[in-house]
Specification:
The protein is mainly alpha-helical. Helices cover 75% and strands 6% of the residues. The protein contains five helices and two strands, in the order H-H-E-E-H-H-H. It has a two-stranded antiparallel sheet with strand order 1-2. Helix 2 crosses helix 3, helix 3 packs across helix 4 and helix 4 crosses helix 5. The longest helix is centred in the middle third of the chain and has 11 residues. The chain is flat and about 35 Å long.
Length: 65
């Protein structure tokens, strides 16, 4: 498989790291894990979705509570 560097650069400039990670999760399916369902559920539950998108900040908040 050849990597298209121009395409990679365009994608990297167009999307946040969180969006790229969510897209990767969306594509995965194995055993009982359904990435599309996980991302859809996260988008419906804003508090969980925010923790998914910024795990470092969420962990910090959990430690200080």
């Amino acid at each position: 498989m050849m990597l298209d560097l121009a395409k990679i650069q365009s994608i990297a400039k167009s999307y946040s790291p969180q969006e790229l990670f969510a897209a990767l999760v969306w594509q995965h399916r194995f055993n009982e894990f359904d990435g599309e369902e996980v991302i859809t559920d996260l988008s419906s539950h804003r508090n969980y979705g925010q923790a998914f998108c910024s795990p470092n900040q969420s962990l910090h908040q959990m430690k200080t509570v």
